[in-house]
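Ticket #4471: complex job returned nothing on first submit. Input attached below:
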Amino acid sequence: MRTQRRGTGSRAPLVLVLPAALGLLFLVLPLAGLLLRVPWTDLPSRLTEPSVLAALRLSLLTATAATAVCAALGVPLAWLLARVEFRGRKLVRALVTVPLVLPPVVGGVALLLVFGRRGLIGEWLDRAFGITLPFTTAGVIVAEAFVAMPFLVIAVEGALRGADTRYEEAAATLGASRWTTFRRVTLPLVAPGVAAGAVLCWARALGEFGATITFAGNFPGRTQTMPLAVYLALENDLDAALVLSLILLVVSVVILTSLRDRWIATP
Amino acid sequence: MRRRPFGTALAGLAAAMTLALAACGGSDTPAASSSSAGSGVTGTVNVSAAASLTESFNQIGKDFEAAYPGTKVVFNYGGSSTLAAQINQGAPADVFAAASPATMKTVTDAGNGTGTPATFVKNQLVIAVPKGNPKGVTSLGDLVKPGVKVALCAVEVPCGAAAKKALDAANVKLTPVTQETDVKAALSKVKLGEVDAALVYRTDVKAASADVDGVEFPESAGAVNAYPIVVLKNAPNATAAQAFLAYVLSDKAKAVLLAAGFQAP
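Support reply: We reran it on our side without changes. The output follows.
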C-alpha cells in the first residue's frame, strides 16, 4: 500500500527547492534560447515542405517501430532479470546497459560489424536471403532499437522489482502456469512501468542521431530522420535547422504529454 | 502558505545565478599570457582547420614550433561549416583554414577576417574503392552500373557540392545509397565494405591507402576545392597568427601538403 506523501510538510525546504529550481532552469534555458531564435515567419512554409514532412514521417514511423521491437524483446528480458535467478545475472544486467554508455556512433560501427554487408550476421543474411540492413529504413529501426532498448528494460525491471510478488504466488498456487501468470497477473500489474519505459524508449529513439547516421546512412525519405535533417541544415542554414528542431520538439512534446496523461496515472 | 517559501527560493535563485554568472565571467578573463612584450613571435596560436588538413597541419604545426621557439600551435579540427559557425559565434581563434571558399566567405562576410584570404592548396576528388577494386570501377560512368553501391557527401558539405559538380559535368545521374555528412564518414563506408565506391578527396585516399585504392577521373578537374586561410579579426595573438599563415604559404609547408596529396593552388 502506498501512503500519500503529498502535504506531509507544510513548506518545502529551501535546501531542496533551490537546487530543484536551478535544475529546472538548466534544462529549460537552452529550450528558451531555441524558441527566442526561431524565425517564426518561416514556420508555416517550412512545415509544408515535402522534405520536412518526409523526415518527420520517417522519424515518427521508425521511432514507433523501434519501440515496438524494444517492447517485444525488452519486456521478456526485464522479466528474466527481475524474476529468474541464474548465474551471471549481474553481468547480463550490466551488458543490457552497455548501449547507454556507448557513444552512439560507436554503437553504429558495432552494428555495421555485425549486421553490415561483411558483418558476422549481415554477410550470411545477404547471401542466404538477399537482406542488407545498412542504408535501409529497417536499418534505422535497428539502430534506434539498439540505443533505446535499455531505457525500456531498466524501467520495466524496476517496475517488476517494485511489484508485489504475492499476487503471482497466489496465481501459481491456484494452478496458473508461469506464462499465464505473466500474461494475466504480472503484465497488468506493471503496465504503468511498461508504458513509462515505452515512452522513454520512444523519445530516445526519436532523437537518435549517431548510431543512425553511422549504420543507416543519410538518404532523404529512406533513412534521413529529423535529427539527421537538422544536422545537415546546420551546415549552411541555421534558421532552417532551428525551425526543424522546433517542429521535432513540438511534435514529440505533444505526443509524450498526451500519452503520459492517458497511460500513466499521475500520482 | 505554500507560496511564500517558493518566492523566497526564487529570490535566492536569482542571487545564486548572479553569483554564478559573475564567477564564470571572472574565470573567463584571458590570462594574457600569449602576447608577451615586443614584436617577437611567441605564445599560443589557435588554429581552426578543416578536418581534411589534420595530418598535414599536425606536421606543419610541429615544424612551426621548431622554427619559432616559445610558440605553441593548438588545432581545432572539424567540418569547415561547423568551424565557421563557431568563429562567427565568437570562438577565440587566431587562424581559420577552410576546405572551401564558400565557407570562408561566411566568415569574411561577417567581418571576422583580416585582409583577403590566401588560397594555399587545392584538393581534387577521386573515386575511393576497396583495396583491389573488386567491382572494377574505372570511371564515373561505372558508378551507375547495377549492383554498385555508392556513398556521396551530402550537397550541403563541400565534398558533396564538388561531387555534384563533377557528376553534372560528366552527365552521370547517380543515386547514392547514402549522403554522408562529411568526407571521412563516406570514406569509412568504403573501408567497412558497406559501399563499393565513394567520391572523396585524393588526400583522404592517400591517408587511408592501406584499406582503399583511389581511381582518378577526368571530370574532377572541374570540381577542385580551393582551401583558403585567413588571420581572424579578433585573434588573441595576431603576431604569431600572421607568422603561422606565412609559414603555411612557405615552400617547406607546401612540401608537406603536396606529400599528403594536395595540389599546389
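Chain B touches chain A at residues 1-2, 4-6, 8-10, 12-13, 16-17, 79, 81-82, 85, 149, 151, 154, 156-157, 176-181, 185, 189, 192-194 (CB under 8 Å). Closing as resolved unless it happens again.
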